[in-house]
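FAQ

Q: What does a record look like?
A: Structure on top, sequence underneath. For example:
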């Protein structure tokens, strides 16, 4: 039996930065302080900028204001060892309940650092509502109005602002490569199908990792439940304090990070519940992951975002569903579809067979809707067992199964 004698060891302040916080097995966590098999992982303890600098990179913090007034923070990873002037910009866009930190959670094997090491100009975006993007030109993060945004707002205002900003700063090295995970793929599809000409002008390639371009066939209980209950929740609570429920530092965030790390047993249970309810079944879980995951996840978002992502399981990739107000808003009963057949920029789709959130069927449906010129790089199916939705970011084998392949692809089109 696992004892509970280690309760709260993660909540003790790290004074010198060398207190172990990660172990290779759940059993090892019982003696974490003195266990030589355990180690200190900065990603389990610190924020995005500190993680970046502690691996020897420089970091620039850029703030871009969207046309609807949100101030979005982007972190630019500066590789001090690469002197080459030719650095193609890459924008990394996280998914629902994550932040830009999700791309630097695996040390030197993180996608963000692998790209920086290869000489790319890496930008980590942080969607509105995450801990890094809680500013607005008019509203405070404590104002209810701040928390009324939906996925359309991110796709249409935020992605546009970020791409144009990056294109201005780094214009001499070619178009931007956009890499999005999950909802970071949704926002790309919304953006590029709404502004296909601008996308062609600014983006060289979209690499979408398990993108939600409609999740009719999802096995995620969480997404299905969101579709059932979020409509009522938004209607009842959108103008109340409850609308801030999913803000960073709010209850779910505190619960996850504090509660889930208390004992090895609870840690394992949290991961299993998370996999079962959100990510899809996974038979093996790397025990070194929970402290890193729960240091970043769940990040903040709004109730309407959760509702709209839930709705992708019933109505696919459409604009926000206002219910009876759709007719007034859009002139149709259902909200308009995002027509991905308008996108001419190449899209490289990646999905995993053991991902419970974005299934092979939904990926194929999306792929079949794309124009021939958008499909030139094809799609990639990860067949490894147990590689679920979260493993695109934190999976033990993410580097060998995925990132190395992405780097080859990007390198091959770099100077085209
Ligand atoms: C990250 O943490 C460091 C040290 O605690 C702090 O100085 C820095 O401002 C934080 N960065 C962000 C983006 O919050
Ligand atoms: C989507 O766009 C394509 C290309 O412009 C067009 O041929 C097609 O009719 C559109 N489909 C819908 C459902 O609007």
């Amino acid at each position: 039996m696992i004892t509970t004698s280690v309760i709260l060891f993660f909540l003790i302040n790290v004074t010198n930065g060398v207190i172990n916080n990660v172990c290779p097995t759940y059993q090892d966590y019982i003696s974490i302080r003195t266990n030589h098999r355990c180690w200190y992982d900065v990603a389990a303890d610190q924020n995005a900028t500190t993680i970046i600098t502690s691996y020897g990179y420089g970091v620039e913090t850029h703030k871009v204001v969207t046309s609807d007034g949100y101030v979005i923070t982007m972190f630019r990873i500066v590789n001090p060892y690469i002197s080459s002037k030719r650095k193609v910009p890459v924008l990394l866009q996280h998914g629902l309940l994550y932040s830009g930190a999700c791309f630097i959670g695996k040390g030197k094997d993180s996608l963000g650092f692998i790209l920086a090491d290869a000489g790319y100009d890496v930008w980590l975006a942080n969607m509105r509502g995450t801990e890094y993007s809680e500013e607005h030109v008019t509203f405070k993060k404590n104002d209810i109005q701040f928390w009324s945004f939906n996925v359309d707002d991110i796709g249409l205002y935020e992605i546009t602002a970020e791409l144009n900003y990056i294109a201005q700063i780094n214009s001499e090295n070619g178009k931007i490569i956009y890499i999005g995970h999950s909802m970071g793929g949704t926002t790309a599809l919304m953006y590029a199908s709404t502004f296909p000409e601008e996308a062609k002008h600014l983006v060289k390639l979209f690499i979408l990792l398990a993108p939600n371009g409609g999740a009719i066939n999802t096995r995620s209980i969480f997404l299905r439940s969101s579709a059932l209950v979020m409509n009522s929740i938004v209607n009842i609570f959108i103008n109340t304090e409850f609308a801030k429920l999913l803000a960073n530092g709010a209850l779910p965030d505190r619960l996850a990070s504090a509660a889930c790390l208390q004992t090895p047993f609870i840690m394992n249970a949290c991961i299993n519940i998370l996999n079962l309810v959100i990510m899809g079944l996974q038979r093996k879980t790397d025990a070194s992951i929970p402290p890193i995951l729960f240091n970043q996840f769940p990040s903040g978002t709004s109730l309407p975002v959760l509702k709209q992502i839930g709705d992708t399981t019933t109505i696919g990739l459409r604009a926000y569903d206002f219910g009876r107000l759709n007719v007034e808003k859009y002139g149709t009963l259902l909200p308009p579809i995002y027509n991905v057949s308008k996108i001419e920029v190449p899209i490289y789709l990646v999905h995993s067979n053991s991902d419970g959130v974005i299934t092979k069927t939904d990926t194929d449906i999306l792929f079949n809707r794309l124009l021939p010129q958008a499909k030139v790089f094809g799609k990639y199916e990860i067949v490894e067992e147990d590689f679920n939705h979260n493993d695109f970011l934190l999976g033990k084998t993410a580097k060998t199964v995925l990132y190395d392949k992405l780097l080859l692809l990007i390198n091959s089109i770099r100077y085209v």
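Q: Is there anything notable about this one?
A: The beta strands are 58-65, 70-78, 89-93, 121-125, 135-136, 176-181, 203-209, 347-352, 379-382.
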